[in-house]
Design a protein that fits this description.
By secondary structure, the protein is mainly beta. Helix content is 8%, strand content 52%. About 9% of the residues have low confidence.
């Protein structure tokens, strides 16, 4: 979960903390974070987009690549509905496999108009620990639920129903929903809630906008970015008292170009290394590395 938790949604899953429950004023009428229109034509991404990331670990003088992740988006018909499908895969490098082998495979389906989640699957291996999730989203107006089949090597197989609201996502669909936020409406310093489901629970977190900043990204160059923090939940890996810092490209793509997250021991950082199929020009890249 560490690899994709950091670069897909930048949030951990092992502990829960209540977020600010006050609904924010949004560009679209929603109880979620402020977003631009979620109609397909207005989304900041399109089918065919593919993003690649490198992940590093820092502890004292130690600084080394530990893994990479790839996130791709395609379109299809799911149970008669026009949908997007996210495929997110992450793994540790061959060298780091000897220390702590990780393989993460996430898939998520959501409607092209409205970004309503339809299905989610997860297949995780983390140093001997295994977890598998399958969610089916039941949007019955009278009793919306997530029908979840979950397995872990610690607790075995379970089937249960989780509460579902219009602002509940899985990690990959939350990542894409957040990219469509309207940063011209978001107020700096204010806490905005986000909600996602993983395993057998629902988690509430929040983000805070800091502002615009031009940064240097290794292997890429100078990039104009929007900087914000995602509140981390204290658990087995992350420090709850610190925030993850995320830098998003300050253009219509809203690409996560760099992030850093405090761990219980050391710090994780990541950067974008490749992209293709973008809907808009990568105009925030002002100077490429030579």
């Amino acid at each position: 979960m560490l690899l994709l938790c950091t670069c897909v949604a930048s949030m951990p899953m092992h502990a829960q903390e209540n977020a600010d429950s006050t609904a924010s004023r949004a560009s679209v009428k929603t109880a979620c974070v402020p977003v631009m229109s979620t109609k397909e034509d207005s989304l900041v991404f399109q089918a065919g987009e593919k993003l690649s990331f490198a992940l590093q670990y820092t502890w004292g003088a130690l600084y080394t690549d530990v893994g990479h992740a790839v996130i791709s988006l395609d379109s299809l018909t799911f149970n008669g509905e026009e949908a997007f499908r996210i495929s997110a895969y992450g793994q540790t490098t061959r060298f780091f496999d000897w220390v702590f082998k990780v393989r993460e495979d996430f898939k998520s389906w959501f409607t092209r108009d409205g970004m309503r989640p339809l299905k989610f699957t997860r297949d995780t291996y983390e140093g001997g620990y295994e977890a598998r999730n399958t969610y089916l989203y039941d949007w019955n107006p009278g009793n919306p639920l997530i029908h979840a089949d979950v397995y872990s090597s610690k607790r075995g197989q379970r089937s249960l129903d989780l509460p579902l609201t219009p602002c509940t996502f899985d990690l990959p669909s939350l990542f894409y929903f957040a990219r469509n936020m309207d940063f011209d409406v978001v107020e700096p310093g204010r806490r905005y809630p986000m909600t996602f489901a993983i395993d057998d629970d629902i988690y509430n977190v929040y983000f805070i906008l800091y502002g615009r900043e031009t940064i240097k990204v290794k292997g890429l160059g100078e990039v104009r970015t929007i900087k914000f923090a995602a509140k981390l939940l204290e658990g087995e890996v992350f420090k709850g008292e610190e925030d993850m810092i995320i830098y998003i490209s300050d253009d219509m793509n809203r690409l996560p170009v760099y992030f850093e997250a405090p761990l219980l021991v050391g710090r994780a950082t990541g950067r974008i290394t490749g992209w293709e199929g973008l809907k808009h020009p990568f105009s925030s890249l002002v100077r490429r590395s030579k």
